[in-house]
Amino acid sequence: MTNQVAAQIDAAAAGSNQMLTFTLGEETYGVDILRVQEIRGWQPVTRIPQAPSHVLGVLNLRGSIVPIVDLRMRFNLQHAEYTPLTVIIVLTVQSATGRRDFGVVVDGVSDVIDVAASDVKPAPEFGAHVSTEFIEGLASVSGRMVMLLDIDQLIGADVTGVALSPAA
Amino acid sequence: MAIDLAQFHDAFFEESFEALDSMEAALLKLNLGAPEPELIGTIFRVAHSIKGGSATFGFSEVASFTHTCETLLDELRGNRMQVTRHVTDLLLKSVDVMREMLRSVQRKEPIDAQRVADLQFDLELAIAQKNQPAAAPAPAPVVAAAPAPAAVEAAKPRVAHRWRISFRPYPQLFVHGNDPLRMIRELSEIGELSVKLDGNALPSLEALEPESCYLAWDLTLDTDAAREVVNGVFDWAEGDCDLQITEEEVPVQAAAPVAATAAPASEAKPSNVVNIADAKPAEAPKEAPHPAAAAAVHEGPKAGATDGGSIRVSTEKIDELMNTVGELVITQSMLTQLGSKFTGHAAEQLRSGLATLERNVRELQESVMRVRMLPISFVFSRFPRMVRDLSGRLGKHVELKMTGDQTELDKTVMEKIGDPLVHLVRNSVDHGIEMPDVRSAAGKPQTGTVFLNAYHKGGAITVEVGDDGGGLNKDRILKKARERNLIGPNETLSDDQIYELIFMAGFSTAEQTTDISGRGVGMDVVRRNIKELGGTIEVRSEYGKGSRFIITLPLTLAIVDGQSVAVGTETYIVPLITIIESLQLKQGMVNRVAGSGEVFWFRDGYVPVVRLHEVFGVEPRTTQLHEGLIMVVEGEGRKVGLFVDDLLGQQQVVIKSLETNFRRVDGVSGATILGDGAVALILDVPGLIRVATQRLAA
Amino acid sequence: MNTWNISVKAKLFATLALTGVVMILVGGIGLSGTRSSNADLDAIFSNRFMPTGWVGTIETHERAVLEKAEEVVIRQDGAAVKAALDLLQERQGEVKELLAKLDATELTDKERQIVEQFRANGADVLGLVQEAMLAAQSGNFSAAESTLIEKARPAYEKLNTAGDNLLKTQIEVAQVMRTEADASFKKSSAFIIGAIVVGIGLSGLLGWLIIRSIVSTLNTAVSIADRISSGELGNDVRVETSDELGRLLEGLKRMDGKLVEIVGGVRGSADAVGAAARQLSHGNDDLSQRTQEQAAALEETASSMEQMTATVKQNADNARQANQLAVGAREQAEKGGAVVQRAIAAVGEINNSSRKIADIIGVIDEIAFQTNLLALNAAVEAARAGEQGRGFAVVATEVRNLAQRSASAAKEIKGLINDSVDKVKVGSELVDESGKTLSEIMESVKKVTDIVAEIAAASEEQSAGIEQVNNAVSQMDNVTQQNAALVEEASAASKSMEQQSGTLVNQIGYFRRADGSGITGSGSHSHAAPEVVRQAQPVTRPRPQAVRKAGLASKPKAVASSPAPLARASGDDSQWSDF
């Protein structure tokens, strides 16, 4: 995992890094675009028993079974209705047990932005509901503050269940 | 051609690296002085495969080096050389070098030629030093590395050639994975071929060694192909045959050195090495060539690039193909649903078109599914040799009968069924079949029979391993079990329960442990493996007459026959194999038992009710037992009544792992994609029963 | 006179008793004379006549037996002996009997001697015959013969002689007895004649005395009765005796008194009846007057009803007209409603179209969203492609911009459409409302029409009711006419009654007192009744005046002016019914 981060930092250092930004409530978050597999509209999911509440269920993504995480729930935000305009971003994470795909439900996708490495600043301590351990850094793009998420940290344990389910 | 082959480079490298890993592991495990033949066999196979592959793809340096290794290994395998630390060190270094070389090739970087040459020299030196009587190993790589130029040099004519080929395999030809029929077929593709069979060497039937080759061929080939092409056909047989290729009246002795090199090997008696991969079905070397595709998947390097009838495809790609086909099926069923809404003349045509589409898609799905299927002979083929070795060592007369070895099953299942079968066959030979004098005394023929039988039965494959030996001695099992406090001293058990005991860990009734069996680590592992596959094992035995182990396995791990059930808005798939009966409970049929929830009387006992909606925490359509349905399922010998809202239909579903992107979920063995594209979970009945029991206990 | 105070009944009874005693005396004497003569006759018969017969019979029997025996002897028939003996036996018994009877009669001593002689002689004869017969039986006929001839025959001769003696004696005795009877008869006849003469003399005397006393009293009674019948009452009657005649006079006296009383009562009553009849006559006149007044009032009522009928008819006509007007209004309102319906439908179509447009806009929005996603995916792919993907990324951004623009445009249109949908909704609501109002108006008009129709129907009913009232009034008129006739009849009857009561008073005047004064009515009320009549008359006087003023119609005048007979009244009846 540290390799990944290092690689990212390298990439960032090399020049600019493209980020996909999305909104969640009032805030804007960004993920490395290379981690994005696909962006798709909302679709009903199949529930998974014994799963954490923010893991809504699984979805058929071109033949593979992909878990869907509601980021609002993950961040303990107020629950929002799922509409056909709700967006699922399918991301790839590197977890302790290997590469995995999963989808996150977000309010909406904003843009693809170029973030120069110099624009990324380390995250200060947040008083917000997101603990800083999931924030890689902050970037200010055309006046907007974008929180860059460390999805490996955020999701990895959830979807693999290493930390949660001893059976796995 | 080169472009085509380049597609397979990735697969080749990938396999080679894996193979090298296993070779390395095997080398590390190798006991100095008393090397396990299986390990040496494994190591040899790796070297052989890499040699073949790299030659095919034109990585000549790799092929050359590997050949040297192979030569050394062959010596080891033939016990003509002792396994010493020096040798293993050399071989481990060779692994490193080979890995390095392959990586360089993969990255299209220059190979560290010096290092390779040094090591190759060391190897050759070792062969030369330790194996005095053996023929000089040196020529071999030469031949292997560059047979073609020599041949090309020798046969230059541009006009049509008439090659006269004398092909006289040594008996062990099959053991090395060569197939004369394949070669002949290949030749026939190059040009016009006439074949003359020389069956003089055939012994009488009693003396016939099923794994030996007694036949020889005289072939005449009219072709435009150059000698090197003809020679290439026999590339892999070198060392295992006498080969003479002559043009017109001019006989060419090109193969002589090869023959000379291989000669000593041919003299070597078949060792106790159980070589799975190279073993061939004994009965029918001529009549039953393997399906080309299957062979290609399983033994890619052997088939080689020259085999136009089959290609090597990675299982991943097949899986992808299956996914795509699955999506296609979903799309098709969507279209079918949509099509039923139209009316009019055109709609009729549309529907007939959709029906055709459906049929074709189903066929396509089945075809893709079949691609994964291999005949079980790939597993069975190792047994003749094993039985022979074992019986020889034990001084027993044992005959192995195998039937149904063309029964197909999924590759993943086959990979996992080998070891349990080996255990069972060993047990049969070691414990089952009595010594000849005992048999005579019991009025049985001196030669005992071990039989293997495979057949399809209701969407599953059943493999039976049996013998006509002494059968299981219940008293002894009981006594042993009591000694080990596995059961109480006064406990009485039914036959089935007694037989169950032999599957317990650490249980062996053998008086003395042999290296073959009796260490008590057999049967529990066997059962665990089979259960992991979703199969069952069952014992039938009659004391004094023999015993029979019946293994039932799913045909494939990729597909399951399932019954879809509805609970609330969710759909679940219950594997058909676990379902005993579905029924509707009437009011008053259910009893409440304190501490164990609800039970009802089913056939000959009380069966607890497991409410699926409670276990999975979904909102059901009804919580009234008499309004829904009860599905009696069995897992690990326990029956429960699964309470569901409704039964939907039976269908074959493709199993998708939840673990790929998520994690294991208790009570769920996987997921599948339904006709409407939605995901349905497949129930893991034993796991579910465990979860339900824990819930009750909690 | 006091001696005659004995009742007439006793006097008559005493006279008759005296006459009876005389008669009994005479009868007794005659009866005893008769009885003694009868006793004599009886003695002659049984004691004298009968014994003579019995003597002859005895002789006959004796001779028969003798002759029998002689026959036997002569014939010397032994066989007949027996028969002869039997006959002897038989005759012997009979003779004995006769002799016993003879002994029972009253015989004189002389006679008794002769009878004893006779008896002895008879016994001899029979004994001798028996002797002879016994001999004959033994065959000794000769002895028998001798006995018979020698002894029996002479015995018989003696008997015969005795018998004759007896007869002679008898006759002699009877002679004596007859002479004795003649003498006693002569004595009794003389006594009887004497008794009869005495009795007749006594009876005559008594009768004369009795008749004399009765006749004088009866004469007094007759004279009293004659006076009463001639109307003379109050006669002085003296009663001197207390016998039945005295009581007769007493009764006549009481009758006289009573009659005086009754005639006085009748006279009073007749006077009262006369007064009442007069009163009745006056009352009837009064009633007649009032009946005429009633008839006039009824005439007035009838004319009022006529006026009312006309008013009601007009009312019904007006209601009908109002109904027609209301129906017209309703049709108008319905037409308005249809127009409003069309308006509603049109607005609904507009609404539908708007909704469809909104749907389409939704699709466009959706497409924009999908395009956005697609472009995002493209951007992701472009990013993966690295440097080569740069250009593609630019294109993707452009596409995203376009998608966003179309999305925002779609949103704007959506807003507009939603706005128009809202407005259309408001419009359609208004139209709906006006439709509702119209239908309410229709409803009200319908109600009005209904009510007017009801009024019309009620008017019809009313005029029918008035017709019925009319009929009832004319019926009442008829009845009143009949009443008038009846009243006149009653008036006539009371007049005749008055006359009759006058006559009665005159007739009662026939009776007068013996002292010459007239008999007046008894009691004070005979004077009071005329008083009442006289007092009532002034009260009734003004009435006819009032009636005459009220009676406008001339026709009833005729009826009212004179008490018409019944036939006349019925003739007027036809005239009344025309009204």
UniProtKB/TrEMBL annotation, chain A:
It is found in: Cytoplasm. It comes from the Bacteria. It holds the Pfam family CheW. Residues 16-160 form the CheW-like domain. Keywords: Cytoplasm. PROSITE patterns: CHEW. This is Chemotaxis protein CheW. It comes from Steroidobacter flavus.
